[in-house]
Amino acid sequence: MAGSDLPWRPPRPCDYYWSEFRHCKSLRNRFHHYYVYGTFPSCEQWKEDYHMCREWEKIQSTHCKESLQQSERNRVAEQRNFTPVWELRQTPPADWHSPLNQGKPQDS
Amino acid sequence: MDQSKQQEEDYGYNLFPERKTGKYKKGSIAESLFTFNHKCQVMLHLAIETSPYAKLLLGAMKNSGCALHKDRHFSCEDCDGTVSGGFDATTSQIVLCQNNIHQQSHMNRVVTHELIHAFDHCRAHVDWFNNFRHLACSEIRAANLSGDCSFSNELSRFNFGIKQHHQECVRGRALRSILAVRKISREEAEKVVDEVFDSCFNDHAPFGRIPHSKKDAKFAYRDFENRDRYSANL
């Protein structure tokens, strides 16, 4: 998206989509999802993305590309769906690499 | 000939100068302390090298300009009571309680938990000492993402629950952590946790998911390694 000279390719290798689908459908994952959210996960999008990815490999259609991009953008949006409690830094803390001076550790 | 040979060969004892002098009597308290420190160092090293949770956090922090060095940013020490570890924001150090961590799986979890605090310190302006919301948020995230509240860990604490129990556990552990380190009433602490819970529970950085198992963490690490390709083709 941002100034890459390389031709477009799916954001993940196709087998990543398949392994995510299989992992999503597994009994363990279904249990964990219920344990956290009280519902069962929906896994079909991974399968859909896998098929789009494979088709892209065959025919490079715009439809496949847009479908995959939209799916991944939705995933990113889902991960950002909260209002942060704190302000993000532009640079790391200035004293991160400062040498220790035998200060007593406090708890956190 | 024999004498000189013996002097050359010191069986690696030069790596442990305090052992050479025989300072610590076998079975003495002093020797126990030394032994826990060494054990802690070994377990820490294993955690950093093999835990996908730790590897992802270390990689993400390096990416953000906060590369961690074992000698500078980790410290194995004796601690009071039953606390397992802490993050000291004033020295940017993760403290590991060598007297309270005796299993590798526990070490892996504590390292992950404290790395999450360190990660938050690195990427955000977290006011650890004056802002309870910030403290609560980081504790919620650490309990959520480190495996602290996994089903098996909760079972081992005799906390039985299934449907949405994870969230209950995260709330409870965040509350405990806050009460342990700050002079604040339980009611106030509960209020702060409630205020920030929805936001912080849904902040899964840098994992991109709640890693319930090593497999989840490996997938998350895989995504982290793929991040350049991912963002370039979004």
Looking at this protein, list some descriptive labels.
heterodimer; A: 108 residues; mainly alpha; 0% strand; extended; disordered C terminus; B: 234 residues; Zincin-like; 2 domains; three-stranded mixed β-sheet; 12 helices; 3 strands; 60% helix; globular
Structural class based on helices, strands and sheet pairing of chain A: mainly alpha
Overall structural domain count of chain B: 2
What does the main sheet of chain B amount to?
3 strands, mixed
Mean pLDDT metric of chain B:
86
What's the overall geometry of chain A? Answer: extended
Q: Which two chains share the most extensive interface? A: A-B, 51 and 62 residues
* CA-CA gap between termini of chain B: 72 Å
Total beta strand runs of chain A: 0
Enzyme class (chain B): hydrolase
GO biological process, one term (chain B): mitochondrial protein processing
GO molecular function (chain B): metal ion binding; metalloendopeptidase activity
Protein name (chain B): Mitochondrial inner membrane protease ATP23
